[in-house]
Amino acid sequence: MAESGKQHLVTAVTEEKGTTCWGCGLGLLLPTLGPAFKCGWCGAITNHNLNKTQNQCLLWRRLRDRCFVSFLFSFMLFVICGGVWAAFPIIFLVSYTSGIVHSVITTILALTTISTFGLSAFQCAGAPPMILWGSYTVVGKGELENYTFCHYCSKPKSPRAHHCRSCGMCILDMDHHCPFIGNCVGAANHRHFIAFLISAIFSTIYVTVMCAYTSFLIWPPLRYKPPEHSTIFSTGLMMLASREGFVALLSSAMELPGEHTSAI
Fold first, then answer.
1. Averaged over 146-154, what is the pLDDT?
2. Other CB atoms within 10 Å distance of the CB of residue 4
């Protein structure tokens, strides 16, 4: 019985191997088939199966993000400036009070959309706080509870954080990486991103309504009237109606600079 107990003890010792916790630096004995373990002192999790993978598309992702941000910002400026140039002279001709009201609404929506877009795109999405690690003399018991080691940043990663290879850093409370703002949506800019989406929706609705209203005011009516006794919508009638619509659109575009001059 005593010899069998010694053999069992020797077997148990030989089936364990020594390793070091990355969080506090303490040596630990682990089973052979245990690549992932949690330190009993600091609470850090070590996973030997997670290795750093090379990302060959990092430069392409960053270039794509910059192009999306530049295009979206230019498109917003084009819609704002183009709408003011095309619609506001017509609105002021209809009613000066209506023009003032729409000027205020346009200014509020434009400033809100551009400012929230800028905060979402250029503000840090949420960097994890700095924390001491590497030695048990500076790491207290349980201070790295459920922390893992980020092989890309080479520092502790909070359980609330996720590494974004497009941004090249760990993001706290990361929701997703949005290419249209060229940034992650995280703890620091999540509210700004939601505000940008709401502002963009209201701005789109407002621009659509104002475009329809202005077009209704400046487009001349169709000159063609179908015969009263005509019951068959022929191909020639469809082509004639399309031609009249194109002529009306072209004439309105040609008359628009003259209306701007008279309004000024």
1. 87
2. 8
**Cα distance between residue 25 and residue 35, in whole Å:** 17
Q: Where are the alpha helices (DSSP H) in the chain?
A: 2-14, 58-94, 96-122, 190-218, 235-263
What pLDDT, on a 0 to 100 scale, did the predictor assign at position 116? Answer: 95
pLDDT score, position 146? 86
How many angstroms separate the CA atoms of 32 and 141, rounded? 26
Q: Six-digit token pair at 158?
A: 């909070």
Contact assessment for residue 136 and residue 89, using Cβ atoms and an 8 Å cutoff: no
Count Cβ atoms below 10 Å from residue 260 Cβ, excluding itself: 14
Q: Rounded distance, CA 82 to CA 46, Å?
A: 57
Average pLDDT, the chain: 78
pLDDT of 43 > 60? The answer is yes
Q: What is the pLDDT at residue 8?
A: 38
Residues 68 and 180 sit within 8 Å (Cβ to Cβ)? yes
Helix (H) or strand (E) holding 36: strand 36-38
With a cut of 60, say whether residue 25 has pLDDT above it: yes
Q: Which residues, other chains included, contact 206 with Cβ-Cβ below 8 Å and sequence gap of 6+?
A: 105, 106, 109
Angle at 39 between CA 34 and CA 44, to 5 degrees: 105
The catalytic site residues sit at 178
Please give the structure tokens belonging to residue 139.
């790491």
> What does the pLDDT look like over 186-204, one tens digit per residue?
999 999 999 999 999 999 9
What is the value of pTM for the model shown? 0.70
Distance, in Å, from the CA atom of 203 to the CA atom of 107, rounded to the nearest integer, reads 11
Tokens of 229: 């006794």
In a 10 Å sphere around its CB, with 0-12 CB exposed, 13-18 middle and 19+ buried, how is residue 252 labelled? middle
Q: What is the DSSP letter of 53?
A: P
